[in-house]
Design a protein that fits this description.
The protein is mostly helical. The protein has one domain (5-361). The chain is 70% helix and 1% strand. It has 18 helices and two strands. It has a two-stranded antiparallel ribbon. Helix 1 (5-21) packs antiparallel against helix 4 and helix 15 runs antiparallel to helix 16 (311-335). The longest helix is centred in the N-terminal third of the chain and has 29 residues, at 59-87. The termini are close together. The model is unreliable at 352-362 (pLDDT under 50).
């Protein structure tokens, strides 16, 4: 086994929550389940992004590698989508491409792709910061203090850039015209304190996360904290929408949810079939992130149009259908060199049919 299998499993669980969070069943009236999912599913991916963050690779090489992994699929998908929409007359280049360059959920057509430039900026920031931090006395303690400070700063600034208009920013007027209304700074720079806090926490705790084991009492305590924090405090969190909540309760419930996912991943790693399936979804998580939302809502809309007002079965079918089609696109991408080059990281290109399922059976 060449990978930390439970990390892939955690990514697989996380991407299932992402797909579920974009489904009508959860999304249509912002239920308690929706609030629970959104309280930790994006922070989970920032934490996991910090687990394997290293400083040995040169800075220029690191930036190229992360741009290849994150910015290239972001641009490839949105540029192809833009070419199609411009071709059918649904938009114009001057309306479409500034939003792609701005890189937040409110400026692009496929909202979920906001995460990719945000993660890129966060990784580069952390890579710039860590070598300096490692040269200080007590680097782990200093890093822990910095993480706490970033959480506090993020709580103060998370909602500050929720409503940006052309009147407030000449740049927005130049890029989007006089009626622009956006949430967040370019590439979600306004979320950097929070995203960096979660990512650096993953880096700080990388050893225990990589050695994670299921501990029933610890998991039960995390579950109690997670449930009570939602039942007693009705703070709504959505990073893309710049809705954060409470400075203490929000990170507390996020960390409890993240611990539960990692703990569950360590437990499921013992079970071959479940572990193999979830680890495979984790390895396919980028492609699932790219395409699931469009597919999910397209299936949902077609089913409602054909069978009338049956949203609940349509939502279930859309959930599984979007996963199936996204996974099919992942397999196609691995086998077609042009798609692999555009959408996949270098270590995934040119791979054979071998998947996490077969690796788990080995």
């Amino acid at each position: 086994m060449h990978r930390n299998n439970h990390i892939d499993i955690a990514k697989g669980i996380g991407i299932l929550f992402v797909v579920l969070g974009h489904n009508w069943l959860i999304n249509h009236d912002k239920t308690l389940v929706f609030q629970m999912i959104y309280s930790f599913h994006m922070p989970l991916f920032f934490v996991l992004g910090g687990v394997f963050l290293g400083t040995r690779q040169g800075l220029a090489s690191f930036i190229r590698n992360k741009a290849d992994a994150l910015l290239k699929p972001y641009l490839a998908v949105l540029l192809m989508l833009g070419a199609y929409r411009i071709g059918i007359g649904a938009t114009t280049p001057s309306q479409y491409f500034p939003g792609v360059l701005y890189g937040v959920g409110s400026s692009i057509d496929w909202i979920q792709l906001w995460f990719l430039p945000s993660l890129f900026i966060t990784l580069v920031f952390a890579r710039l910061l860590l070598p300096w931090l490692q040269r200080t006395p007590y680097p782990s303690l200093n890093l822990a203090v910095l993480i706490a400070a970033l959480f506090l700063l993020g709580a103060l600034t998370a909602e500050h850039y929720r409503d940006l208009t052309s009147a407030a920013s000449p740049l927005l007027g130049m890029m989007f015209g006089p009626n622009a209304h956006l949430r967040g700074l370019p590439f979600s720079l306004d979320l950097l304190p929070l995203s960096a806090a979660f990512l650096l926490l993953g880096y700080l705790l990388r050893a225990p996360i990589q050695r994670a084991a299921f501990k029933p009492l610890h998991a039960l305590a995390a579950l109690v904290v997670f449930l009570l924090s939602h039942l007693l405090f009705h703070y709504y969190t959505d990073l893309n929408a710049r809705e954060y909540g409470h400075w203490l309760i929000t990170p507390l419930r996020a960390l409890a949810g993240i611990y539960l996912v990692i703990s569950l991943s360590a437990l499921l790693a013992r079970y071959r079939t479940a572990a193999g399936l979830l680890a495979y979804l984790g390895q396919a998580s980028l492609i699932i992130l790219l395409f699931h939302a469009y597919v999910e809502w397209a299936i949902f809309g077609k089913l409602l149009q054909r069978y009338g007002n049956q949203p609940y079965p349509a939502g279930v079918i859309a959930f599984f259908g979007s996963l199936a089609i996204s996974v099919a696109l992942y397999e196609i991408s691995r086998r077609l060199p042009p798609m692999a080059w555009l959408l996949l990281q270098s270590h995934q290109r040119g791979s054979n049919v071998k998947t996490a399922l077969s690796e788990q059976a080995a």
